[in-house]
Design brief:
With 104 residues, the chain is an alpha/beta fold. The chain is built from four helices and four strands, in the order αβαβαβαβ.
């Protein structure tokens, strides 16, 4: 748990101090590969960020098939959080052209 919590807190600090290029009313978007990560982010910062989830809880993230809508989610991301057992995440980020930091 500590291994996940420290990078997550650091990532949240980065997001909170990073200037947002979009309008001042828009919150940064954090894209999580699983609902587990999304739940943590929502508990810590739901009022500060928008949270998007790629894989639903009924699908094994290691066997997930990426959809075109996922490319758009990642393209819009300010931060990407993943566990490390998702073999498709790096290809997805490349395909999206996202420059968002990735935290494992």
């Amino acid at each position: 748990m500590r291994r996940v919590l420290i990078p997550l807190i650091l990532a949240m600090l980065i997001v909170s101090v990073t200037p947002i290029v979009t309008s001042s009313n828009e919150k940064p978007t954090v894209v999580c590969t699983t609902t587990v990560l999304a739940s943590i982010v929502e508990d810590l910062a739901s009022d500060l960020v928008n949270v998007e989830v790629i894989a639903s809880p009924t699908i094994c993230p290691a066997h997930y098939d990426v959809r075109p809508s996922d490319v758009e989610k990642v393209r819009q991301a300010s931060l990407i959080l993943y566990h490390g057992f998702e073999p498709w995440i790096e290809d997805l980020v490349k395909a999206s052209g996202s420059g968002a930091p990735m935290v494992k």
